Amino acid sequence: MVPALARGLRVLELMAREESELTLKSISERLAIPIPSLWRILSVLRENGYVIFDQEQKTYRLGFKFLYLGNILLNRMGFRSQARGYLKRMVELSGETAELSARVKDQLILIDEMEGPEAVRLFSRIGSAYPYFHATAPGKVYLAHMTGEKLKRVMDRMGLPKITEYTITDLKDLEKELNEVRKKGYAVDREEMRMGVSRIAAPVYDHKGKISACLGVAGPSFRITNDNYEKIGKWARKLAHQLSAELKEQTGASW
Description:
Elements: H1 2-17, H2 24-31, H3 35-47, E1 51-54, E2 59-62, H4 65-77, H5 79-94, E3 97-104, E4 107-114, E5 129-130, H6 137-144, H7 148-158, H8 171-184, E6 187-190, E7 197-205, E8 211-220, H9 229-248
Antiparallel strand pairs: 1-2, 3-4, 3-8, 4-5, 6-7, 7-8
Helix pairs in contact: 1-3, 5-9, 6-8
């Protein structure tokens, strides 16, 4: 079973490196694993939640089991307790639900949150995904850290579908928005993913200086308005910067 295990690890490492999903044939060719053997390996990984198979596209990608295992690791490292301190402060400053999200392959996943005190507030299930990068604040943060060529490739693959009447659907308009994100250090989603809901997010960097998460808030648009976007954005940017600095001080504290 040792050779099969080694092959399985190579398959997972390949999927982690690739931007796009992979077919059975492409995996076989890249890793020089015979298709019958590869099929058995992928079947075991699928059954245990480590790989997801797209029936329509006939492609494979990493499963969310790694998020579960990552959460266990983060808890043992004490990172989760560190991040929650900043989420709590974000709630105290803004009065809104604070969120911590991270990119897992081509999806943005909510990995932690702390609800605000208001009777009308936003609640999302931890582990849920934001389906589109261009229509939500955390997604814009990640897109703003991509080069022009990579951004175009990603947008060509993901598309710019119109989710609400406020969603940005033109690449040039999105690029202008991302320039603002780079200048300000935070991103804003003004009902672009869901009517009545606005989000603000700022990047958190690991000890290598790479973006690893987004810290921000989400709430009803009648409270998160043009009058307080900038104020909340600066709070998010400051707290994200402080969390980043704390991570950089710790050896191996990357995500």
